[in-house]
Automatic annotation (TrEMBL):
Cross-referenced PROSITE patterns: NDPK_LIKE
The protein, known as: Nucleoside diphosphate kinase
Lineage: Bacteria, Pseudomonadati, Bacteroidota, Flavobacteriia, Flavobacteriales
Gene Ontology CC entries for this record: cytoplasm
PANTHER family, per the entry: NUCLEOSIDE DIPHOSPHATE KINASE, NUCLEOSIDE DIPHOSPHATE KINASE DDB_G0292928-RELATED
GO biological process, any: GTP biosynthetic process
GO MF annotation list: ATP binding; metal ion binding; nucleoside diphosphate kinase activity
Binding site for ATP: 9, 57, 85, 91, 102, 112
Species of provenance: Maribacter stanieri
Active site location: 115
Length: 137
């Protein structure tokens, strides 16, 4: 069993999809081992998305991710990273498979409802960015 990190992004929170998204996540067999309702500061978002600093959409991404509250969570399941990325679907909801979270709840490539870590290493880094050890159960 292992872990991934997710955020329900500001668009999905604003559109009232927190409950439906958590339902999809738990129905797919993920166990929530840490969770909080929070908002990223400018500095948080710039650091969290540091790998995208040189990308043309970086400014938009940071502006969007700081625009409202999010839900951050650590999820546990066998093969967590890969299975969670399959559950959320392609970055652009237009390309996302039927039944995936982004297909159902995302509005655009930028405002795409959820984040999912892309490797075990990044899952650990991102999880500890948001949660102290005593907040993980
Ligand atoms: P995350 O799970 O959020 O990391 O998405 P991803 O791994 O599917 O995509 P990637 O890491 O390449 O990009 C990170 C985030 O940047 C995406 O989820 C989008 O929110 C945003 N993003 C990516 N490409 C674009 C783009 O062309 N325009 C805009 N505005 N945002 C983008
Ligand atoms: Mg990514």
């Amino acid at each position: 069993t292992n872990r991934t990190f997710t955020m329900i992004k500001p668009d999905a929170v604003k559109n009232g999809h927190i409950g439906a998204i958590l339902e999809k996540i738990t129905a797919a067999g993920f166990k929530i081992v840490a969770m909080k309702y929070t908002q990223l500061s400018l500095r948080d978002a710039q650091e969290f998305y540091g790998v995208h600093r040189e990308r043309p959409f970086f400014g938009e991404l940071v502006e969007f991710m700081t625009s409202g509250t999010i839900v951050a969570a650590i999820l546990e399941k066998e093969n967590a990273v890969e299975d969670f990325r399959a559950l959320i679907g392609a970055t652009n909801p237009a390309d996302a498979a039927e039944g995936t979270i982004r297909k159902m709840f995302a509005t655009s490539i930028g405002e795409n409802a959820v984040h999912g870590s892309d490797s075990d290493e990044n899952a650990a880094i991102e999880g500890s960015f948001h949660f102290a050890g005593r907040e993980i159960y």
